[in-house]
């Protein structure tokens, strides 16, 4: 035997240090990989052959589609998709991974399967301790998926997102015992659902809702997000002692009535549209006169009605949308928030549109109580017209602790434009010596309005 061959045989094999790690650590590594990458590790060696079957599964057929298919060949529309070979392959791949896996299931998101196929996934996921579940039946109006009772009683579920599904007609006395977040899209909200979810903290209602009203009564709810199209609906915050955030799409209060009757811990509210149909904030009711619905500018009336909360004193951050012709309700709205600290205003109207602001309207208000606390103002869509200037001048002159006014401008910013607007706003007469007036170019991605970007229909 040659010396070279003996040398090669005596050389020790390189050690595979990763494979020597405990199963629990390897499972953690696999759970961080894209599902197909984790699936392919089974061919590495006998040590890895069955590891993927026992690690905590996080399976999303939507991202599975994005991860495995060339961008130019991904499907989105239903009819040609059903006949698409890639669609069948994806479904088979998801089935194969799901059926061969024996470990816990943490996340499951399904959008490639029809209603009649959902049960086998859902029931297995419940048995294996599902944490996050998203169901979007691939029926496209041809049916809805009725949730099984086993899902409603699941103890491990923390987050649930449903689209085109429906709840059983007879709900259990208590459902979703540990559910923290619920998202509903294109489906109704049962009247007694919230009162039966003891741990629910976040509720998101979006897209089409066909019902006369949505009444919110929940001891645990902390955040409510409301995107709504469809028939006009009345949203009533009836009894929400722990609600902290109520976020409405920027057009929501035009066609939908809003009543905030009992939310003593509410800190963030918006959007309230100045073109408000009818809104009740505590005991204050603001609504358009019926005879002025077709006239411009419209007129509004303010009434006082008995209510457990007089005003929304706890609200610290408010977002309003100022529509063309609809400046008059703004002072009425601001009076309902005496503790306001952050005011975000969105104005979208073309340059040169007429302003129907009553001359001296803001001066007639005097110093409203919220001005003793107001610290920041952000205006998105600033053109610098009379309506903008009058409002900002009022805030500058009366805002005793105002620190920053940020103007996101809809036009090109020049030094001459900035100097003129500062002079018109009377920045030299500011009540707060620490006030800074800042100009930025407005964009959809502007970080200064990022809190509300998801609530804006561009």
From TrEMBL:
Which Pfam families does its entry note? F-box, FBD, LRR_At5g56370
Q: What is this protein called?
A: F-box/RNI-like/FBD-like domains-containing protein
**InterPro entries linked to this entry:** F-box-like_dom_sf, F-box_AtFBL13-like, F-box_dom, FBD, FBL13/AtMIF1-like, LRR_dom_sf, LRR_FXL15/At3g58940/PEG3-like
- Matching PANTHER family: F-BOX/RNI SUPERFAMILY PROTEIN-RELATED, FBD DOMAIN-CONTAINING PROTEIN
Give the organism the record lists.
Rhynchospora pubera
Report the residue ranges that make up the F-box domain in this protein: 15-66
């Amino acid at each position: 035997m040659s010396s070279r061959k003996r040398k090669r045989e005596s050389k020790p094999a390189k050690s595979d240090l990763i494979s020597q790690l405990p199963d629990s650590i390897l499972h953690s590594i696999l759970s961080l990989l894209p599902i197909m990458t984790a699936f392919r590790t089974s061919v590495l060696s006998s040590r890895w052959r069955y590891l993927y079957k026992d690690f905590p599964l996080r399976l999303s057929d939507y991202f599975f589609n994005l991860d495995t298919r060339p961008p130019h060949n991904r499907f989105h529309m239903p009819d040609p998709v059903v006949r698409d070979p890639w669609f069948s392959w994806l479904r088979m791949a998801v089935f194969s991974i799901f059926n061969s896996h024996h470990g816990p299931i943490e996340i499951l998101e399904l959008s490639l399967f029809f209603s009649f196929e959902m049960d086998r996934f859902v029931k297995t996921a419940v048995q294996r301790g599902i944490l996050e579940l998203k169901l979007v039946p691939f029926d496209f109006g041809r049916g809805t998926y009725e949730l099984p009772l086993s899902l409603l009683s699941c103890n491990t579920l923390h987050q649930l997102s449903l689209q085109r599904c429906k709840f059983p007609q007879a709900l259990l006395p208590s459902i979703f015992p540990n559910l923290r977040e619920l998202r509903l899209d294109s489906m109704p909200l049962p009247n007694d659902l919230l009162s039966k979810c003891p741990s629910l903290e976040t509720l998101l209602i979006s897209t089409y809702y066909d019902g006369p009203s949505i009444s919110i009564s929940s001891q645990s709810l902390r955040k409510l997000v409301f995107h709504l199209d469809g028939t006009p609906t009345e949203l009533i915050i009836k009894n929400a002692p722990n609600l902290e955030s109520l976020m409405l799409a920027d057009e929501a209060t035009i066609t939908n009535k809003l009543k905030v009757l009992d939310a003593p811990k509410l800190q963030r509210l918006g959007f309230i549209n100045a073109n408000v149909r009818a809104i009740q904030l505590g005991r204050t009711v603001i609504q358009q006169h019926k005879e002025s619905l077709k006239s411009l500018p419209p007129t509004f009336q303010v009434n006082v009605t008995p209510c457990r909360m007089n005003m929304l004193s706890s609200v610290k951050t408010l977002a309003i949308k100022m529509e063309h012709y609809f400046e008059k309700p703004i002072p009425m709205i601001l009076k309902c928030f005496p503790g306001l600290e952050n005011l975000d205003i969105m104005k979208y109207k073309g340059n040169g549109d007429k302003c129907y602001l009553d001359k001296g309207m803001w001066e007639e208000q005097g110093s409203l109580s919220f001005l003793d606390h107001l610290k920041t103002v952000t205006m998105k869509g600033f053109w610098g017209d009379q309506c903008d200037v009058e409002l900002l001048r009022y805030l500058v002159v009366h805002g005793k602790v105002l620190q920053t006014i940020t103007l996101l401008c809809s036009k090109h910013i020049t030094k001459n434009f900035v100097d003129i607007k500062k002079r018109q706003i009377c920045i030299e007469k500011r009540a707060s010596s620490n006030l800074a007036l800042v100009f930025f170019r407005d964009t959809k991605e502007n970080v200064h309005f990022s809190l509300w970007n998801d609530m804006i229909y561009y």
